[in-house]
Design brief:
The chain contains four helices and seven strands, in the order αβαββββαββα. The protein has 204 residues and is an alpha+beta fold. The chain is rod-shaped, with a radius of gyration of 34 Å. The C terminus is likely disordered. It binds iron/sulfur cluster (SF4) (2 copies).
């Protein structure tokens, strides 16, 4: 009796398995032949970040809003003759000398792209972020020519600052000499007419 029972169980379980196979044989497959075939991501999908440097005004807003501090930005003030415009007409008053994003820290919250006033920082639909080395996750955007011009501008501002300080020191010394020798105004420099507004700037 047990012999026939075993035969019955074998046939029943085989038929039950075949039933599931038959039922799924006519269902549309949900798997994709990746990488030949890929999913179409939704319009608002947040993938890899990208920044169009030509439209960045170095306003720092993305840096300040980033909750994990993974955006690094440096800038230098442009000379008046170097002020440029972005594609939407915003003024570019600063040289962007550094704009890096550490993607290993980024939590893809989208706050930086939301706050960007020129929409130059945005999430692409790129989701295959798998570099061979970790440094591939560190995105560097600043243009070499902007970095170079930023260096020149920084040197210029530093030079001008020193010249102003030297001029203020010379004026201060001359006023003290006149007071010591009793020539010129005897009034205190702080309330006297010898002093031009801003002549003490270099001392602050
Ligand atoms: S997406 Fe969020 S975490 Fe990533 S860089 Fe932007 S603000 Fe920072
Ligand atoms: S918010 Fe936009 S414009 Fe401002 S520094 Fe960031 S990327 Fe540049």
């Amino acid at each position: 009796m047990a012999y026939f029972r075993n035969i019955y169980d074998a046939l029943a379980t085989t038929l039950a398995g075949m039933q599931i196979t038959l039922r799924n044989a006519f269902i549309k497959p949900i798997t994709l032949q990746y990488p030949e075939v890929r999913h179409t991501v939704p319009e608002r999908f947040r993938g890899q970040l990208f920044m169009r440097t030509e439209d960045c005004i170095a306003c720092d807003q993305c840096v300040r809003i980033c909750p994990v501090d993974c955006i690094y930005l440096d800038s230098v003030k442009r000379a008046p003759e170097d002020v440029a415009e972005t594609s939407d007409g915003s003024k570019k008053r600063l040289w962007l000398t550094r704009f890096d994003i550490d993607v290993t820290l980024c939590m893809v919250c989208g706050l930086c792209s939301e706050v960007c006033p020129t929409d130059c920082l945005y999430h692409t639909h790129e989701y295959e972020i798998a570099p061979r080395h970790r440094k591939g996750m560190f995105l560097v955007f600043a243009e070499p020519q902007d970095i170079e011009k930023g260096k020149v501008a920084a040197e210029r501002w530093e030079r001008e600052k020193k010249e102003k300080a030297a001029a203020a020191a010379a004026a201060f010394g001359a006023a003290n000499d006149r007071r010591a020798t009793g020539t010129g105004s005897s009034r205190s420099p702080r309330c006297g007419s010898l002093w031009e507004p801003g002549s003490l700037q270099g001392y602050r």
